């Protein structure tokens, strides 16, 4: 394939501008006369948007002309708008900055709906910029018209339909501010074509107009003191940690609080890496496919110290039976989450980092006053449970390759400093279970929406944002076929991600449910990637400008992973051909109590007896 020239790569590798701050970043104090499109690009430059993922089209085309000349904003031409959205999400999750994607009107904008919804469910800071038909044509069913502001109203933190060029700087500054502060989330900015084309005035910095937006960062002192009192008196406390801790960059203070209290820690799917897996107080991931120890700890707890988590159904199981004897401290930056699913005995509104810092001080004061609990019996029980029910898997009886082994070896060889993304399904759960995470922002996945096709474009965005990191996408053969076209983008743009396709020939998680709950009636879950090798993933990788490898035996797994690690100038795709009958265990069947957790098929831990 044709490689980009050094000059082209140098042009693409723009240095990252300063962090976005519309009050400090002032490219020009004087008023200038520019087109709306020029104002858009100048505003993005001022806000520190160093990368935009997108595809041009008629309505957004005026913006692409000044973007061509920008030395601060790198545009990455994706192959599908969904890829642009997920890439912006991966970039945001890996860097902690606001991710930006761009699309044209109509189908371009509607193709962003899935990644916008995904970002909304997982609280990811993203700004989506869409072109719109000319102002005079809005509402006439014009060519490629869609009311994208109306469509995305329920799945954005806020959205705008821009009325004039003069308001573009303010709207963009507000969009970035809203996306990245408080509870992060996606913001959409829809711009009619005539607004982009007309001349207007540009002055920076703008004055933001957000009179009702004041996220509470610092918690109320009375609530902190009451929480500390409960922590000091608890006999079976659990730190129930959600993705909000990672969003708040609070992992270091979480470690201090955990060691101060001595309480066990569970980290949700979105919080993997917030607390080191290697730490003895870490009980693992709770929920439908969590560890038995983590699920047991929550169920038998007398106090849940809930930090940046939302009591979602995949963690709680049947809500009425979740942690039935536990008092609840619930801290979240979004007051709407507190009490939404589970009543909080001590509600705390605030940024997780500030909350934890103040809890440390208050708990320390309780300890100094002689109120320090003894958790020896609690830990004896938990150590016994996790010793009896460790994570594990059985080797396939038919001699095929175990997918869990593949993922376990990827984690062991690649190590905890890499960034891992995953699609959705069995491989996602195995990646959450068998890769060991030691650092925040190293595990990226679609948790709330469960979006198949997330892994490859998210890995692309993560690698663009963190070029110093090794980035692996752990994908399924079903997920991979939804967005693998973005590997062409990676090859042409010099983005050398690694993709491990866990190829079991089926939609694996759906097949697992059909095995367990539908009498093994496998309706429309076989993909043909085993029986017919359609597509042949090695040939597909080659066609997309990547290095393609295949591994079918256990003895070749390590060598194949190591071969992929040696390739640093191209994307790599590995077709791991694995058995089709592997299942994800443990499992809490949907709609049942966590007490019904199955350790393996037909094996249920003894949760009904009082072990405490």
Automatic annotation (TrEMBL):
Keywords from the UniProt entry: Amino-acid biosynthesis, Branched-chain amino acid biosynthesis, Magnesium, Metal-binding, Thiamine pyrophosphate, Transferase
EC category: transferase
Pathway: Amino-acid biosynthesis; L-valine biosynthesis; L-valine from pyruvate: step 1/4; Amino-acid biosynthesis; L-isoleucine biosynthesis; L-isoleucine from 2-oxobutanoate: step 1/4
Cofactor: record remark: Binds 1 Mg(2+) ion per subunit. Binds 1 thiamine pyrophosphate per subunit.
Chain ranges of the Thiamine pyrophosphate enzyme TPP-binding domain: 423-576
A Pfam match: TPP_enzyme_M
SUPFAM superfamilies: DHS-like NAD/FAD-binding domain, Thiamin diphosphate-binding fold (THDP-binding)
UniProt name for this protein: Acetolactate synthase
Native organism: Dactylosporangium vinaceum
């Amino acid at each position: 394939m044709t490689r980009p020239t050094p000059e082209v790569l140098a042009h693409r590798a723009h240095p990252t501008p300063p962090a976005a701050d519309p009050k400090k970043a002032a490219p020009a104090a004087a008023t200038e006369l520019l087109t709306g499109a020029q104002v858009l690009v100048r505003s993005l430059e001022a806000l520190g948007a160093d990368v935009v993922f997108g595809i041009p089209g008629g309505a957004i085309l005026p913006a692409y002309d000044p973007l061509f000349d920008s030395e601060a904003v790198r545009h990455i031409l994706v192959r599908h708008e969904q890829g642009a959205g997920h890439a912006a999400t991966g970039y945001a999750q890996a860097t902690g900055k606001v991710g930006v994607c761009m699309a044209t009107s109509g189908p371009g904008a509607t193709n962003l709906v899935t990644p916008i919804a995904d970002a909304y469910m997982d609280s990811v800071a993203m700004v989506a910029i869409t072109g719109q038909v000319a102002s005079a044509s809005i509402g006439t069913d014009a060519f490629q018209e869609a009311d994208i502001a109306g469509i995305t109203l329920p799945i954005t933190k806020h959205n705008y339909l821009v009325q004039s060029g003069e308001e573009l700087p303010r709207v963009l500054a507000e969009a970035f501010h809203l996306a990245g502060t408080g509870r992060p989330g996606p913001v959409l900015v829809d711009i009619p074509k005539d607004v982009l084309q007309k001349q207007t005035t540009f002055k920076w910095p703008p004055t933001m107009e957000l009179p009702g937006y004041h996220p509470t960062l610092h918690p109320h002192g009375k609530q902190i003191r009451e929480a500390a009192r409960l922590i000091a008196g608890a006999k079976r406390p659990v730190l129930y940690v959600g993705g909000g801790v990672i969003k708040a960059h609070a992992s270091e203070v979480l470690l201090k609080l955990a060691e101060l209290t001595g309480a066990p820690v569970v980290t949700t799917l979105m919080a993997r890496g917030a607390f080191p897996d290697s730490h003895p107080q870490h009980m693992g991931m709770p929920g439908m496919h969590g560890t038995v120890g983590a699920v047991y700890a929550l169920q038998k707890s007398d106090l849940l110290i809930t930090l940046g988590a939302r009591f979602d159904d995949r963690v709680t199981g049947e809500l009425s039976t979740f942690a039935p004897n536990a008092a609840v401290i619930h801290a979240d930056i979004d007051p709407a989450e507190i009490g939404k699913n589970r009543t909080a005995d001590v509600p705390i509104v605030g940024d997780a980092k500030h909350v934890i810092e103040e809890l440390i001080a208050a708990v320390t004061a309780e300890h100094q006053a002689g109120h320090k609990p003894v958790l020896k019996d609690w830990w004896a029980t938990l150590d016994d449970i996790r010793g009896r029910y460790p994570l594990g898997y059985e080797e396939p009886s038919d001699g095929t390759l175990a997918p869990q082994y593949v993922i376990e070896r990827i984690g062991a060889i690649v190590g905890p400093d890499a960034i891992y993304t995953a699609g959705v399904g069995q491989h996602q759960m195995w990646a959450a279970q068998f890769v060991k995470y030691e650092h925040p922002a190293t595990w990226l996945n679609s948790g709330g929406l469960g979006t198949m096709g997330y892994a490859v474009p998210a890995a692309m965005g993560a690698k663009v944002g963190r070029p110093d990191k090794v980035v692996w996408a752990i994908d399924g053969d079903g997920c991979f076929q939804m967005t693998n076209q973005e590997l062409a983008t990676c090859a042409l743009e010099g983005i050398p991600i690694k993709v491990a396709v866990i190829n079991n020939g089926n939609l694996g998680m759906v097949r697992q449910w059909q095995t367990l709950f539908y009498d093994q009636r496998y309706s429309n879950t076989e993909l043909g990637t085993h029986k017919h090798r359609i597509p042949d993933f090695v040939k597909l990788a080659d066609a997309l400008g990547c290095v393609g490898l295949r591994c079918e035996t256990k003895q070749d797994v390590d060598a194949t992973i190591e071969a992929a690690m040696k390739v640093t100038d191209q994307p790599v795709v590995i077709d791991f051909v694995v058995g089709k009958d592997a299942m994800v265990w443990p499992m809490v069947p949907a709609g049942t109590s966590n007490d019904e957790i199955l350790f393996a098929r037909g094996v249920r831990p003894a949760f009904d007896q009082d072990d405490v």
